[in-house]
Design a protein that fits this description.
Structural class: mainly beta
Shape: elongated
Number of helices: 0
Distance between the termini: 40 Å
Helix content: under 10%
Largest sheet: 7 strands, mixed
């Protein structure tokens, strides 16, 4: 089995920063793309940032210039550095990882359970 555990969420004031972490564990041979998503009440889940195993990144317009995704392949961990946070960033944040369990390299997506980020004074 594969588990993704998120950490780093919480309450922060507008203009502040948070760093989210998501560590994958279990039956992992290699992890390909990883990403961060968020979902606010009444809205669809939104892709925020994605990163390939080699480190290439893509960002949604809503967070471009404020958020940065990174990863540590040795730790099977993906990070999301969030700066200049705004109230509209309030949401549940989810990480996703494409995981192959063996040398056949058949990748399947796994999700974390989500962590709440609240931006409020």
């Amino acid at each position: 089995q594969v588990q993704l555990v998120e950490s780093g969420g919480g309450l922060v004031q507008p203009g502040g920063s948070l760093r989210l972490s998501c560590a994958a564990s279990g039956s992992i041979f290699v992890i390909n793309d990883m990403g961060w998503y968020r979902q606010a009440p009444g809205k669809q889940r939104e892709l925020l940032a994605a990163i390939t195993r080699g480190g290439s990144t893509n960002y949604a317009d809503s967070v471009k210039g404020r958020f940065a995704i990174s990863r540590d392949n040795a730790k099977n961990t993906v990070y999301l550095q969030m700066n200049s946070l705004k109230p509209e960033d309030t949401a549940v944040y989810y990480c996703k990882a494409a995981v192959a369990k063996n040398v056949l390299l058949s990748f399947h997506d796994y999700w974390g359970q989500g962590t709440q980020v609240t931006v409020s004074s």
